[in-house]
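Thread title: Can someone regenerate the structure for this chain?

I was given the following input by a collaborator and told the matching C-alpha cells would be attached. They weren't. Posting the sequence so someone can regenerate them.
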Amino acid sequence: MRTRLAIKLHALLEKRFPERRVFLKSDSDTRFIRLRPETQLLAFAGVAVTVGWTIVATAIILMDSIGSGNFREQAKRDQATYQERLNILSGERDMRAEEALAAHERFNAALEQISMMQSELLDSENRRRELETGIEVIQTTLRSVMDQRKEARMALAKLEQETGDETATYKMAMSAPAQMTFMSEALGRTAQERDQILADAQSALDERDELELEIQLMRERSDQIFRQLEEAMVISVEPLDKMFRSAGMPTDRIIEQVRRGYSGQGGPLTPLSFSTRGEEPSPDEIRANRLLQQMDQLNLYRIAAQKAPFASPVHAAVRFTSGYGTRRDPKTGGRRMHNGADFAGAHGTDIFATADGVVTHAGWQSGFGRLVKIKHAFGIETLYAHNTSIRVKVGQRVSRGDHIADMGSTGRSTGTHLHYEVRVNGKPVNPMTYIKAARNVF
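Best answer:
Regenerated them for you:
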C-alpha cells in the first residue's frame, strides 16, 4: 500500500518537477548530477521560505519604522502635555509651600501665646493662694476681735451691775474716793477698747469685701485665660493629629511610644496640686490639669513629628518626574514597580534629611549609586539615591533639615535626579503621603 502511494506521489511530482540532470564536464571526464523531483521540491520549498521570510521581515521593519515615527510624535505630544501639567503642579506646590509657611508662623505665634498664658495662669494661681491665705488670717483676727469684744461687753455689764444703785455708789464714793477713781478710769479704758474693737471689726469686714471682689475678678480673668488656652490647644493639636492620621500612623501608639522614650527627660508635665489636706480638687484645678495634659500631648506630638519624615528632601526648584507605583522602565521599556519618588533638578542640588535619625548607610550600592540611608523612629527608614556626593557618614546622628548629600546621576539613572524612598518596617510606602500630610502644618 505504501509502495503504491509512493509511486503515485512520485508520478505527480514528475509532472511538476521532471527529473533533470546537470552535467559537469572536465578535460578528462564528464559527470552529471541527477536532480530528482523530491530534491527539486525541497529546493523550491527552501527558496520559497527564504523569499517569504525576507518579505515578512521587510514588512515588519517598514511597519516598525512607521510606528516608531508615530510613537515619537505621540511621545513628544505626551511630553508637552506632561510638561504643562508639571508646570501647573509646580505652581500649586509653590502656593502650598507659602500656605504651609504661613501656617507654621501661625503655629509658632499660637505657641508663644500659649506660653504667655501659661505663665499668667501660674501667676494668677499664686496670687489666688496668697489671697486665700490673707482671708484666713483676716478671718482669724476677726474672730479674735469678736471674742475680745464679747469679753469686754461681759465685763462692762458686770461693772454696770455692780454699780447700778446710785445711792450705794454715792456712799461708796464718799467712803472710798480712790476706788471710785480707779473704777471710772477702768470703765473709760474699756469703752475705748470696745470702740477700737468695733472699728477694727468694721475695717476687717470692709477689707474682706474688697478681697472677695478682687478674688471674683481674678476668677473671671482665670476663666478667660482657661478659655483662650483651651481654644489654642484645639487649634494646635488637631492639625498635628490629622497629619499623623493622613500618613496612616496610629496616634495613640505613636504618642505612647514617645512618652515612654521621654519619661525620664521631662517629657510629660506634672499635674497641678493646690491642696495637701486630701480635699477633692476644685473645678479650676481639674481644668488646669486637663490643660496641662493637652500641653503634654502637644509637646509629644511635636517630638513625634520631628522623628517622622514629614518634610521634602529638596528645598530648591525641582521637577517631580516619577511617583510611587508601577511604571514604564526607562532602561528596558517594560513595566516595573517604582518604590519611591523621583525629583529632577540641577546637578549638585542640596539634599536634606526629612526627619531626625541615625545614618545606617553612606556609600555605593548597586543600582542606587551613591546612597544614604537614615533610620528613624517608629520603624521608619528613608533612602536618598543617585547622589553625586555624600555629606554624612555611618553612625552619624542627623536632624530634620541637615544637608546630607548633593543631587547627581550615579548608579542606574538616566539623568540628574534624586530617588527618595520611605520604608516602614522594611516595606516601601508612598513617600508623598508624608510630604502631603505635612503641608498644612509645617
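DSSP finds seven helices and 14 strands in the chain.
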